[in-house]
Structures are given as structure tokens and as C-alpha cells.
Amino acid sequence: MIGLNALLLAVAVASPTLAQGSPVETGPANAPGQNPQFDNQTRAPQPMSMPPVRAEIVADGLPQLWAMEFLPDGQMLVTVKSGTMHLISPDGTVGPAIAGVPEVLASGQGGLLDVALAPDFEASKRIFFSFSEQRGDGNGTSVASATLIDDAGAPRLDEVNVIFRQMPSYDGRNHFGSRLVFDSEGALYVTVGERSDAQVRVQAQDIGSGLGKVFRIDQKGAALPDNPFVDQNGAQPEIWSFGHRNMQSAALDGQGRLWTVEHGPRGGDELNMPEAGLNYGWPEVTYGIEYSGAPIGEGITASVETEQPVYYWDPVIAPSGMAFYEGDEFPEWNGAFLIGGLVAQAVVVVHLENDRVAFEERVPIGARVRDVKAGPDGAVYAVTEVRGAGSQIVRLSREQQ
């Protein structure tokens, strides 16, 4: 149901407060001595023309969600951080908890995380989901597959099978990641975190460890034979790229290439296009600083051995969820990435030209944005969260003027 809050939100969204052409971010950086390596690597200008946006709440009073995926029939499949899944009808009606979800470790930043449909979902009804899993020697991010049975009034998961586990386990509460993205050939990219704590985050640089990595696996959880480290002794063959912090945003672009956005520390959120076998720096090379204000490591932002981010944010947007937009509702956004901002409390729109960010704009939502999806109707759907108060699903469409 759409109420007064949605109307007020629509008015706020349709009235940008910053001058067009200037950067969205004008506040001081956390690391003022750090400089970008090329033009528009940070604080890109806003586009001179931005669409008027109307926001409507299509589902309210939800538990704290983490992810959303559209089914072919228009229903929304959502994951709840505490460990349940639900189907939500296009009119916002929330179905019962889906039976058969395995136990998740819903502690700290952990819980039931991302969900993705198998490429052949219409025939197979298979889904894949990630979650933080308690283990005998700690915990970690795991990926499972299951068959979604949508019995009227009693949906359930059958044939639940954990296909992949991030290893090693670690007894921590933070930086589980993660997002799941299928490519056009059915390979599954899995993004994870490096578990945050200083004593283990260094393993993001170790290809014998699964912390701080992008993995590329088949639908049974095995490494793909053309992965970059399959023939390297001591390496985990599932690894695609390494040197990442905590990736909660990932999507394919129009050419089928994977892009990710990872949380930085205090400053230093990064947009990357991870390529096979490449090192993205964390924690040896990074923009941003420790939460204490101290430099991270030697405080360097560039190295010949590591890749530069395509774009970075300081202060952070706190990225979660990501979609590549192709639709008629917002032709101005075609070819842009839409990124959820937890701290930004906005949908962050980055426009690319020649694989660099040309413009950045933000659609204020007024709540933490946990996930973003382009809907089958061309509208944009944002999953919001308010800590301790649950979630909403907000539909963004063009404001008629």
C-alpha cells in the first residue's frame, strides 16, 4: 500500500539540492592527503540533466531484508538477515516463511545474505543463496543451491545442498560479503569479505586463502578449468581475483563483465572490474584510513603490483547491492550502475564512459539501501533497512511533470 510517507519521499527525491554539474560529495575527505591517480577517479561531477524520480513504497513492515530477486512471474523473492525467505507479490503482499532454509549464523554482520536464480530457473526452479555458516572451527560464508517449490500458501525449498564454503573458517562477526552473479555461460561469481580483523585481513593477499576474494565456480561448486590459479600449487583454484576487502555489491555490465563495489575502511569504498588473477590491493594498497585515524599499513594508494579502483568514495557511501540499468523508464540511466548506499541513504548512480566514471548522481531514499534491482517494468526497486525497525521495498519511477 502507498501512503503519505511515499508521497513525501517522492517530493524529496524529485528535488535535488545540489547544483547540477558539481560533485555530489562536497564534504571533507577522511584522508585529505590522498590524491586520485586520474581524472574523475573520485568526486565525479553530476550530469547536467537528471531525471525527476518518484518513490513509492510497495512493501512495508518487513523484517530486516538483505537481498531481493524478481521471479519470472513478477513476485519478489527476498532474504531476511535473521534466516528466512519470503515471496512478495507485486501488490506488496508478503507470503509465509519459505520452509527448508538451513540454519544461518545471524550474528554481527552475518545472516542469510544474497540470492540468485539459476540461469535455467524457469525450467529447473533452482535458486542459489549465500549465508554465514557456523562451523566447528569458526564460521564463514557458504553458498547453497535448492529447488524453490511455490505450493500455494506453503512455499518450500527442496534438495538443499551446500555447494561451496569460503575457507578457512574464522571465529569472527564481520565482513562475510557477499553477492552472487551468474555470467552468460552459467558460471557463478561469489564475492566475499576478508573477515575484517587485522590478524586475518592480510590473507586477502594470499591466494591459498579464501578471505577477500572473488570466486568463480560452476553450479556444483567446482572451480572452472580456465580460472587463473587452477594449476598453481597451494592456490585455491576457485579464486578469480584477490586483494579485496568486503564486497556486498556486484553486477554484470552490458558486455557481460563483472563489476563490484567493496566497502572501504574510513574512506576508500571502491568500484572495480575484477579481472582474472589480478590483485586489487587490500590491505597493502588502499584509499582511506583506519577507523582510529591511523594510516593503513604504509599508507600507500598505488603500487605497480596492484590494480587501481575505477572509482572510489571518501567519505564512504557504504555500498550494498548493485544493478546495471537497461530500461525505458529512465533512458538517462541506460548503461549506468545503480548502487545501494547504506551510509549515503541513497541509490548511487554512476555513469560510465570507456570504463571510467564520467558522472555520479544520487537519488535520496531517506533510509539505508541494502539492495537495488531493475524491475521487469523498467522501474528501479530499492530494499531499505532501518536498524531495529525492519525494511521496506521502494519503487522508483519517473515523476510525471
UniProtKB/TrEMBL annotation:
What Pfam families does the entry give? GSDH
Instruction: Write out the biased-composition intervals (Polar residues).
Output: 32-44
Q: Which domain of life is it from?
A: Bacteria
Signal peptide residues on this chain, from the entry's feature table: 1-19
Assigned keywords, A-Z? Signal
All copies of the Glucose/Sorbosone dehydrogenase domain together span 64-386
Task: Show the stretches that span the lipid bilayer.
Answer: none
- Coiled-coil spans are none
Cite the residue spans of the region called Disordered: 19-48
Q: What is this protein called?
A: PQQ-dependent sugar dehydrogenase
